[in-house]
Amino acid sequence: MTGGGGVREPDEEFGGLFRAAGVIGFLHAVDVDTGAEVAYGADEPVVLASVFKIALLVEFFRQADRGALDPAERVTVMADRHTPGPTGVSAMADDVTVSLRDLAYLMIAVSDNTAADTLIGRVGLAAVNTMLDGFGLVRTRVEHDCATLFTSVVEDSGQEDMPTDPAVVSRLRVLDPARTNRGTPRETARLLAMIWRDEAASPESCAWMRRLLGLQVWPHRLASGFPYDDVAVSGKTGTLPTLRNEAGVVEYPDGGCYAVAVFTRSYGTAQNQPRADAVIGTAARAAVERLRSRPA
Amino acid sequence: MDLVKHLRYFTVVAEELHFGNAAVRLGMAQPPLSQGIRRLEEELGVRLFDRSSRQVRLTEAGRAVLAEAGEILARVDRLRALAGREEGEVLRVGVPPDLGSAVIAALIAGFEEACRETAAPEAAHHPATGRAKAGAERAGGGVRLVPAEMWSADQAAALTAGALDVGVLRHPIAAPGLVFGPTLVQHPGVVLAESDPLARLSSVHLADLAGRRLVLFPGEPGLHEETLAECRRHGFVPQEVHHAQTLGLVMAGTAVAFGPRVELPGLCWRTLVGAPLAWRISAAWRGEAGPAAEAFGAVAVRVLKENAGMTEDGAAPVRRVRSRPASGFLA
C-alpha cells in the first residue's frame, strides 16, 4: 500500500473484496477503446461454465455471416430432447418450434441449455475452437455441450440435483479447468471487446450480439456493481456448484466502455450466496474505477 | 502435604508416563495432578520427571523415589486393609466437559439412585430405571462412580487403553473395539453476543453467520469436521475457527458458538432455522460391558433425555435444496 491513504495495490484491493465474500476470484478488465487493463489472476485457467455460450454465439453469427446457416431458420426441439436446466426451453414441457437466432436469444438472455445444445448441433464445437484459434484465444477451449456436462455431474455425484455436499463437490470434473470448458479472464474479456469493436464478426452480427448480451435478465452479479439508469451492463453469467462467473461490457454515459470478466469459486457449497454474486459487481466496479481514474 | 496421596499420584504418572492417562486412572483432572507432582518435587527438592521433550520421562532421582514410593504405598495399603478401610469397586466414566455441572451431577445422582434401589428391592419398579437397576444389582451395588471430564477423542483413547470403563462421547468417532449404547441426538442452536445484530432475529440461519468467527470444542475432531461441512453446505465458512472450552470469545463479540440454550449475561441464544446441526452422543465401552457399565449407560440415556433435552436418534433429517433458476445448473 502506498503511504498517506493513497491508492491500494490491485492485489490487496481485489484479494480483500473476494476474501470478504467467501470466494477466490480472478478478474480482467479492459478499456475497449484504449486497451488499458486491470488484472487480478487474469491468466489463471478458469472454468467457463455458461460463459462458454459467448464463444458459441460468436461462431453462430460468423457462420450466419458466411451463409453457412440461416439465423431465421425455424427448428423444432422435441420435448424428450431437452437438456436439463432451470430456464428457457430446458424448463418447458412441450416441443418448441423457434428460429435459430431466437434460440441464441434464449441462450444468452436466460442461459437456456437446450437452446445452446441445439445451436452446438448446428455450429459444431470444432468450429468454435477453430474460430478461437483464429483470434489467438488459444487458452479458451469449448469441448463439451451442456448435456455432456450434466451427465458428468450426475456420474460424479450420483444425483441429478446440483450437489452441495463438500465431499461430492470436490470430485466434480466440471469444476476442474483441465477437464471442462475453460478459458482465462483475459481471453474472455478480449473476446467481448472484439464484439464491441465489431471485430468478432460482421458489424451487423456484432450489433446483434451486443443486443442479445444486453437482454440478459440477471441483475445480481455484474450489473449489481453499476446501479445507474444511464449505465448499460451487458453480459453472460456462468454457474456451477461453487462457481459464479460473469463476463460482460459496461458502457458509461460519457462513452467509456469496459469489458470485464470475473470468475469466482466459493468456499461454501450453498447454492444461494448473495454476497458471492454481488462481489462480481463490486470487484468489476472497482476495476472500472481504476481504468477511469487513469490519466488519459 | 498429604505425602501418601502425592506419592500415589507420582507412581501412577510414573507408570503411565502420560499426565492425561494418569489423571483418568486417578479419576481427577490433569491440572491438579500436574500441580500435585510439582508440589511433591518441591517437597523432595528434586525433579522427578523430565518434561522438556514431548514425552514424559523419569529422571534419575525419579527412578530412585519410585522404588521407595512403591514400598511405602504397599505398606499403607496393607495398613488400610488391616484397618478394614478398603474401598469398594470403582467405575471410571468419562463425560464431555460441555455437558455442564447440572447434567454431570444428575448422572452421579442417577447412578447412585439406581444402586440404592437395587439395595431396596421392594421399591416401586420404575420402567426407565429398570435396566439400570438390573445392572446395578448384578454389579452388587456399592459401586463408586469416578467421573472425569474429557473430550471424545481422549475418551476413546482412554477406553481403548483400559484407563476408562465407560464413556459418554460424541459421534462421529471411530476406535477399534468400541461398543456404543443407544444414540441420542441434540440440535444445537447458536450462541451470540447480545450486541450482535443477529440477536434481533427470532431464529438464525447458518448462512446468516457468514463472515463470523466460530468457536468449537477442542478434542472433538469428528464433530468438528461434520459441523464445518454442514456449515459450508449452508454457506457459512467461518473466517477463523477457534478451539475453546468457554464462551469468552463469544461474550467479547469476536465469535459465535453452537450449543444448547445458555442463559448468561451478555450472551444470547437462538435456534438455527431448519435444525441443520445434529449432535449425536452415546455411552461407549470397550468390548463386553460389565454390569456397572451397563447400568451407567442406561442412567446416562435417561439423564441426557431428561436433563439435557436430547432425544432418541430419529431418521436423519432430509436435507432439501430449494433450487432457484439464477443458481441452477449452468445458469
TrEMBL record, chain A:
Keyword Cell inner membrane among UniProt keywords: no
A Pfam family the protein falls into: Beta-lactamase2
Residue ranges of domain Beta-lactamase class A catalytic in the record: 28-264
Molecular function terms, GO-annotated: beta-lactamase activity
GO biological process, one term: beta-lactam antibiotic catabolic process
Domain of life, per lineage: Bacteria
Claim: Nucleotide-binding is one of the keywords in the record: no
Alphabetic keyword roster: Hydrolase
Name of this protein: Serine hydrolase
Origin organism lineage: Bacteria, Bacillati, Actinomycetota, Actinomycetes, Streptosporangiales
From TrEMBL, chain B:
Record's keyword annotation contains DNA-binding: yes
PANTHER family associated with the record: HCA OPERON TRANSCRIPTIONAL ACTIVATOR HCAR (PTHR30346:SF0), TRANSCRIPTIONAL DUAL REGULATOR HCAR-RELATED (PTHR30346)
The keyword Cell inner membrane appears for this protein: no
Domain HTH lysR-type: 1-59
UniProt cross-references to PROSITE patterns, sorted A to Z: HTH_LYSR
Family, similarity comment: Belongs to the LysR transcriptional regulatory family.
Keywords: DNA-binding, Transcription, Transcription regulation
Domain of life: Bacteria
InterPro entries named among the record's database cross-references: LysR_HTH_N, LysR_subst-bd, WH-like_DNA-bd_sf, WH_DNA-bd_sf
Signal peptide: none
GO cellular component: protein-DNA complex
Name of the featured protein: Transcriptional regulator
Biological classification of the source: Bacteria, Bacillati, Actinomycetota, Actinomycetes, Streptosporangiales
Organism: Planobispora longispora
GO MF, one annotated term: DNA-binding transcription factor activity
